[in-house]
Amino acid sequence: FFDETAEIYLVSLLKGGRSPFTPADELHTGDEKSDSPAKTNKPPAVLIDLNGLQQRTQRVPVPPGNYSNLTVGEKRLYWMSTSSGSSSKNNVMTLEITNKDIKPKTYAGDVADYELSLDRKKILIHKGDDFYIVDADADSPSLDKSVDLGNWTFPLDPRAEWRQMFLSSWRLMRDYFYDPHMNGVNWPAMRDKYLPLVARVTDREELSDLIGDMVGELSALHIFVIGGDMREGPEHVNPAALGARLDRDQANGGYRIQHIYLSDPDYPSEISPLAKPGVELTNGDILLAINGVSLTNIADPSELLRSQSGRQVLLSVKSPHSKPHEVIVNPISTGEERNLRYDEWEYTRRLEVEKLGKGEIGYVHLRAMGGDDIDTWARDFYPVFDRKGLIIDVRHNNGGNIDSWILEKLLRKAWFYWQPRVGNPTWNMQYAFRGQMVVLCDENTASDGEAFSEGFKRLGLGKVIGTRTWGGQIWLSFDNWLEDNGIASAAETGVYGPDGKKWLIEGHGVDPDIVVDNPPHATFEGHDAQLDAAIDYLQTQLKLHPVPNPPPHPPYPNKSY
Predict the structure, then answer these.
(1) What's the average model confidence in pLDDT over 27-54?
(2) Closest C-alpha to 347, from 369, 374, 379, 309
(3) How large is the greatest C-alpha to C-alpha distance in the chain, in angstroms?
(4) Cβ-count burial of 211 within 10 angstroms (0-12 exposed, 13-18 middle, 19+ buried)?
(5) What are residue 492's phi and psi, to 5 degrees?
(6) Model confidence at 33, in pLDDT bands (50, 70, 90)?
(7) How far apart are CA 433 and CA 327, in angstroms?
(8) pLDDT band with cut points at 50, 70 and 90 for residue 537
(9) Distance in angstroms (rounded) separating the CA atoms of residues 22 and 456
(10) Over the stretch 400-414, which tens digit does the pLDDT of each residue have?
(11) Taking 80 as the threshold, does the pLDDT of residue 370 lie above it?
(12) What is the DSSP letter of 505?
């Protein structure tokens, strides 16, 4: 991460041009006055001496920063400056075009954006949810009165908008799709085929279905029709959950806690609501009531947890080892419970590797290939970088764009060793993995998870085990948004191999070196044939090709003579 890398420069269009920021000297006193041009309706002629233009670049005397959106007013420069860090803010900066007391100033702080008018006399500032119009030459503009947008109304014709967005989707796909020949599909014919159906659309979701039908003619993955101005009815209900599997227990008049989802104890914020300190329920306990309502005749406890996510809920509980009592819990959303179930799967995979691998094999699971997964990699890889074996699990991986970053870490090779006075040697390149590696993938490994799996194979880092992956490898940017912030994303950048003979992965997927499927019923019972195969393979390889410990250091030198 490199911070404050932008600087501001000017270039003289003619030879001999002098920067307006250069201080006066005995040859240039600053008193020279140019003849004012005669007033005319014609724009002034712009003369540029192209010969030597690059050598006439000069730096504007302001410190480097994170700059963008530079504009030039009549007497000042304006630009956006962004501070670093997760709580960064945008400030509009200004600099007077002068050669005396040159110092940038904050024109407006903590803004979303700004725009200089064409006559360079006014500035529109977007701050929060408001807009302000201020004088460009003001030293400290007042932002007390915003533009009144309260009475703005716009007559809209939804059908006209839907037709426009349909045609925009067709046009943007035509202009963004990686293959200018549109995979051999007659694209104008597709427009003509589906356009008459727009007149029958009755809401935005139906428009999305229609757009999806049209773009689906390209038979390419990484085309997602999502977003837009969707309606949400007032009956929308946010369900909540307790982070456990519950089964009806009619004999005891409630619901038995069949299983509280497990989580890594190193991360207490991710624990199930029923297992938190102060609650500490266990499998087998009976839930009798929620907020005083008996569960005897309730079809499902979720009925009493509607819109209770994050709120205090009173549970009446009966335990085999204690008297009936009450506890207060904070239910979580169903999305958070889904993550909790996934956390358990991931955590138990790691425990299984620790047990069967006898502490010699490390395990790292990546759910996707985004920013959060960089954190996961650092959290889970560095504690096991010195193991003899490593399993990198990208099953169910949703993709992203960090495959090359992880492959770069795995390509590191130890080439010399540091020996401190006390302790074991360490190596350079730091955190290089010296042992045997495998990757686990399955039919739900998608996008950048597939790129990582294929790269792992082609770079000779180890074997890939599992089942053939999803098969989407035309990359995209999500740049082609529609008028209502919906999108039919275009698959924009195809991927092909170094021989230049065929496109990779798209429409087929990554074929594992060792095919192992997880049978549904055995998986439901808690077995993981793919993980077992990875552990068995690594243990076999470690017997055939043991990973040597770092060599002992050479004798210390004798420099007494």
Answers:
(1) 76
(2) 379
(3) 103
(4) buried
(5) -100, -30
(6) low
(7) 48
(8) very high
(9) 56
(10) 999 999 999 999 999
(11) yes
(12) S
For residues 457 and 100, give the distance between their C-alpha atoms in angstroms, rounded to a whole number. Answer: 62
Residue 110 and residue 90 in contact, taking contact as beta carbons nearer than 8 Å: yes
Strands 486-488 and 426-428, sheet pairing: unpaired
Q: Please, what is the average pLDDT of the chain?
A: 93
Pairing of strands 436-441, 389-393: parallel
Q: How far is CA 287 from the centre of its chain?
A: 39
Looking at residue 499, its pLDDT comes to 93
What pLDDT, on the 0 to 100 scale, is given for residue 35?
53
Annotate 308-321 with b (16+ C-beta within 10 A) or e (fewer).
bbeeebebbbbeee
Residue 405 to residue 1: CA distance in whole angstroms: 14
Nearest CA among 172, 178, 206 for reference residue 191:
172
Amino acid letter for position 149: L
Overall average pLDDT of the 115-128 stretch: 94
With CA atoms as reference, report the closest residue to 458 among 377, 513, 399: 513
How many other CB atoms are there within 10 angstroms of residue 382's CB atom?
A: 14
Q: Do residues 272 and 260 touch, judged by C-beta distance below 8 A?
A: yes
Strands 514-515 and 463-466: parallel
**CA 229 to centroid of chain Cα atoms:** 23
Query: Looking at residue 73, what is its pLDDT?
Result: 93
Residue 383, class by beta-carbon neighbours within 10 Å (0-12 exposed, 13-18 middle, 19+ buried)?
exposed
Q: Residues 452-456: what's their mean pLDDT?
A: 98
pTM confidence score: 0.85
Please determine, for residue 37, whether its predicted confidence score (pLDDT) is greater than 60: no
Q: Which residues contact 227 (CB under 8 A, 6 or more apart)?
A: 484, 485, 486, 487
CA–CA dist 530, 533 (Å, integer): 5
Q: What is the pLDDT of residues 308-322, one digit of tens each?
A: 999 999 999 998 777
pLDDT at 67: 97
Give the pLDDT band of residue 280 (cuts 50, 70, 90).
Answer: confident
**3-state DSSP call for residue 433?**
coil
Say if residue 501's pLDDT is above 70: yes
Residue 463: CB atoms within 10 A of its CB come to 17
No. of helices (H) and no. of strands (E), the chain: 9, 26
What is the dihedral sign for C-alpha 542, 543, 545, 548?
Answer: positive
What is the per-residue DSSP string for 157-193?
-HHHHHHHHHHHHHHHHHHHSS-TTGGG--HHHHHHH
Q: Record the tokens describing residue 330, joined without a space.
A: 């904070």
Task: Please confirm whether the linkage preceding 429 is cis (ω < 30° from 0).
Answer: yes
Percent helix, strand and coil across the chain, each to the nearest 5? 25, 25, 50
The tokens of 349 are what? Answer: 């995979």
Asked if residue 305 lies in contact with residue 330, where contact means CB atoms within 8 angstroms, the answer is no
